[in-house]
């Protein structure tokens, strides 16, 4: 059967038809004014989504992981110290990337399910004035935990520390509020395939004037991701190499969609979708893996499964029997959770279909669950809140 269900993985996300069409374009000369005309709105649009007053937007043919690498290789030197809390697979992978680049990573080990520990970050900064950058995972996609980036900025200011603040916003930017300038972020990393609802293939970065200045002293090797080469070419309306033209056209269009819905409405919709999912899992007698409600992510929920149940078995059955994709538990929560992605092109009705599918799988696997219980809880919640018609009518 060639029909396609929506996906409920936390990226890549479902792609709106008009975004797919915007990506599908004939070859143009990327050194022509035609490319410059389509490139500029994409860059300016990202600047608005990031809420960025000063600095540069950089688009790299890559993914979020390449964005991490670009952030550190452009601004740091071998042996530099960076500070990072580890509380999930994505914060772990960024730390690993730094270590493989010869950076000295001061790691604050934090239980999975928790977010960035503000007091420990402040104490670590007070104890070590040589730290060059603080790395923060805004939304830990493995556990469904959001961290308080404004709080990290406050901790840095309270410590009177001049380190840069690098934020992984791959699974938050475009779906949850983000304030590049107000939070004093120096580099923000996003990827095309999450909140921007595009295929994978672009790393999207915001870079502050302070991070730009740090490039002069930074000696880590970089070529493909060199911001200087990018910015020199950008000034001439182009790229230092062949850009992924279709993705850039798609990005400009995706931002049009987000802005026609209204960014605040987009964030409100994600919150409502997530809250419906949380009501459903409560009705199932389960809980989010995130330790406390202030940590609940609005883009992904890691559902803690009952003792003796295997979250990975549910994900496999959903794929093989019903053709629906959920996320498996990663690393130390493998099997203990399954993840419901609720970001990007999603409506109430789509989420209800995902919840219904999860229930069928639970019943098939003999889990203690009553069919319809979670769906009913989400329905009650969605009926009583403003529907996502701006999105549905698109
Ligand atoms: C998806 C994701 C990434 C990057 O993944 P890529 O597959 O390289 O795009 C990084 N951080 C977080 C928090 C993510 O969710």
Could you characterize the architecture of this molecule?
The strands form three sheets. A seven-stranded mixed sheet has the order 1-9-8-7-4-2-3, sandwiched between helices. It is globular and about 60 Å long. Helix content is 42%, strand content 15%. Helix 12 runs antiparallel to helix 13 (373-383). The longest helix is centred in the C-terminal third of the chain and has 21 residues, at 263-283. Helix 4 links the parallel strand 2 (81-86) and strand 3 (104-109). It has helices at 17-23, 33-50, 64-75, 89-100, 118-127, 149-158, 209-214, 227-235, 245-261, 263-283, 311-322, 348-364, 373-383, 389-392, and strands spanning 56-61, 81-86, 104-109, 131-137, 139-140, 145-146, 164-168, 187-191, 202-207, 287-288, 300-304, 327-328, 337-341. It is of the alpha/beta class and 394 residues long. Residues 11, 63-65, 90, 137, 139, 141, 168, 170-171, 191 line the site of pyridoxal-5'-phosphate.
């Amino acid at each position: 059967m060639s029909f396609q269900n929506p996906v409920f993985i936390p990226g890549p996300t479902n792609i709106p038809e008009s975004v797919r069409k915007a990506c599908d374009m004939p070859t143009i000369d990327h050194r022509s004014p035609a490319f410059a005309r389509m490139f500029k709105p994409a860059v300016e649009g990202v600047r608005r989504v990031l809420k960025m007053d000063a600095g540069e937007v950089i688009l790299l043919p890559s993914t979020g992981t390449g964005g991490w690498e670009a952030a550190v290789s452009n601004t740091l030197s071998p042996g530099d110290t960076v500070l990072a809390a580890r509380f999930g697979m994505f914060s772990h992978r960024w730390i690993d990337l730094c270590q493989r680049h010869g950076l000295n990573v001061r790691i604050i080990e934090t239980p999975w399910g928790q977010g960035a520990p503000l007091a420990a970050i402040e104490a670590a900064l007070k104890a070590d004035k040589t730290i060059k950058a603080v790395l923060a995972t805004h939304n830990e996609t493995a556990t469904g935990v959001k961290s308080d980036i404004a709080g990290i900025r406050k901790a840095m200011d309270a410590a009177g520390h001049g380190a840069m603040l690098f934020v992984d916003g791959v699974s938050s930017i475009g779906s949850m509020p983000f304030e590049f300038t107000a939070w004093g972020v120096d580099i923000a990393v996003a990827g095309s395939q999450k909140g921007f609802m595009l295929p994978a293939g672009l790393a999207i970065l915001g870079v502050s004037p302070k991070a730009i200045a740090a490039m002069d002293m930074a000696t880590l090797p970089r070529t493909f991701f060199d911001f200087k080469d990018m910015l020199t070419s950008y000034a001439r309306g182009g790229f230092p190499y062949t850009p992924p033209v279709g993705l850039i056209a798609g990005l400009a269009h995706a931002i049009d969609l987000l802005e026609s819905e209204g960014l605040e409405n987009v964030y409100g919709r994600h919150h409502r979708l997530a809250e419906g999912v949380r009501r459903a899992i409560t009705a199932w007698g389960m809980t989010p893996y995130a330790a406390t409600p202030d940590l609940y992510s609005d883009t992904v929920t890691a559902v803690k499964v009952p003792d003796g149940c295997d979250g990975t078995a549910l994900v496999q059955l959903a794929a093989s029997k019903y053709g629906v994709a959920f996320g498996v538990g990663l690393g130390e929560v493998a099997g203990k959770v399954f993840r419901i992605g609720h970001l990007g092109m999603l409506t109430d009705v789509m989420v209800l279909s995902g919840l219904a599918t999860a229930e069928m799988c639970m019943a098939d696997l003999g889990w203690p669950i009553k069919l319809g219980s979670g769906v009913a809880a989400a329905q009650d919640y969605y009926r009583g809140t403003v529907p996502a018609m701006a999105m549905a009518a698109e």
